[in-house]
Amino acid sequence: MIYLDNAATTKPNQDVLDTFVKVNQSLYFNPNSPHKAGLQAEQLLQQTKREIKELLQLNNAFEVLFTSGATESNNIALQGIARKKKAFAPEIITSVLEHPSVLEVVRALADEGFCVKYVNITAEGQVDVNHLASMMSDRVGLVTCMHVNNIMGQIQPIPEIAEIVSQYPKAHFHVDAVQAIGKIPLYFNQVDSISLSGHKFNGLKGQGVLFVRNIHQLAPIMYGGGQEFGIRSGTVNLPTNIAIVKAMKSAVLNQASTFNMLQTLKTQLISFIEEFQGVYLNSPEGSSPHIINIAFPGVKGEVLVNAFSKYDVMLSTTSACSSKKASLNEVLLAMGITEKRIEGSIRLSLGSHTTVEDIEDFKAQFIKVYEEIKELLK
Ligand code: PMP
Question: Which residues form a coiled coil (predicted)?
Fold first, then answer.
């Protein structure tokens, strides 16, 4: 199988699996238990939190919350911040580029009475920072933006956005860094909270992290035993947490070499694809090295996914989360891509396990698929 759907999920690293099993066997204790074994678990939890803050160079104002994934991290951060700020800063700014785990949250908050505004998008698929600056005021309590888009791979101008938002002390800046970690250099200066999902960087499904500056800015969105500052109640899952940190260390420490490796493969793939008449590249220049979005106008994305799947190539239409929805993809629409091109778009996504052989095999299968559909291309 040629697996080119790493933006949907990745294969867990063996040492992550081993860590998960080992901690389950030897340190399965509840870190909130007052006995010696519980204290040992608690010490390891705190040490792990210190290690990942150091790894990402986050200062002591940040707290680490382990969650079940970025959907939960985004919900805890966005709902938690918005509710705390409702009385004095009820405006929320985001863009249509965001993942549904952000967009659906802000839509629900709008139903609750928050004022949600969407910043303009440039033709390169980036947040228009001048427009953002013109939208800012003391009424804005929350700005949320992804680091890397999961459909096209464009990298957002996080430093510029952070600089603008930091001029407004009431505004919290949340970054969904799910598709960025391990792929591009991360930028978290002047950022107030960050979401990650373990299975996107060779960790396990059901593992996530939320980093929050000044945790007391958040109102809890669920209630229970009061673990994790009362923000994420429920028995702490130490084996999962230790395992995600293992994955995070290898993603972050190998980021530069992964970037170079992926960039080489992406460049090769793009020059290969460009040789085929009627096939177009959607991903903008300078986008993340792991995502390549291409269009075959005249052929439906689902047809292409099935055609590749027949040859054991796994890729996706727009993203796994939206590929089952019938509507045209909002991210591609926002970038001004034509309907025909959107309908015929597929996403290839590489990961740290992708090899030169995978790409060579993919090219051979691509030629077969192209022969089957070329008469339909417009
Ligand atoms: N944000 C982005 C940018 C994503 O790509 C995803 C996963 N597709 C998520 C958030 C949600 O992550 P999860 O499904 O692991 O909760």
Answer: 38-65
pLDDT band at residue 336, thresholds of 50, 70 and 90?
Answer: confident
Q: Is the CB of 6 under 6 A from ligand 1?
A: no
Beta-carbon contacts of residue 300 (< 8 Å; ≥ 6 apart) = 343, 344
pLDDT of 330: 78
CA 364 – ligand 1 centroid, Å: 31
Catalytic residues: 321
Residue identified by tokens 């929350």 is 142
- pTM of this prediction? 0.96
Residue 367 CA, ligand 1 centroid: distance in Å: 31
Q: What is the CATH number of domain 14-253?
A: 3.40.640.10
Which atom of ligand 1 approaches the CA of 146 most closely?
3
In the block, tokens 């950022």 appear at: 191
Smallest CA separation from ligand 1 atom 14, residue: 71
Give 222-242 pLDDT, tens digit per residue.
Answer: 999 999 999 999 999 999 999
pLDDT-based confidence at 323, cuts 50/70/90? low
Topology alike, domains 2-8+255-376 and 14-253: no
Which pLDDT does position 331 carry in this prediction? 79
Q: What is the second-level CATH architecture of the domain 2-8+255-376?
A: Alpha-Beta Complex (3.90)
Question: How confident is the model over 186-222, as pLDDT tens digits?
Answer: 999 999 999 999 999 999 999 999 999 999 999 999 9
Q: Is the pLDDT of residue 300 over 80?
A: yes
Ligand 1 center to 243 CA (angstroms):
19
Is there an atom of ligand 1 within 6 Å of 180 CB? Answer: no
Give how far Cα 254 sits from Cα of 72, 189, 192, 232, 286, Å. 26, 21, 25, 30, 20
Atom of ligand 1 lying closest to residue 7 CA: 5
**Separation of 43 CA from ligand 1 center, angstroms?**
30
The domain spans of the chain are: 2-8+255-376, 14-253
User: CA–CA separation, 190 vs 58, rounded Å?
Assistant: 10
Give CA–CA dist 334/49, Å, rounded: 38
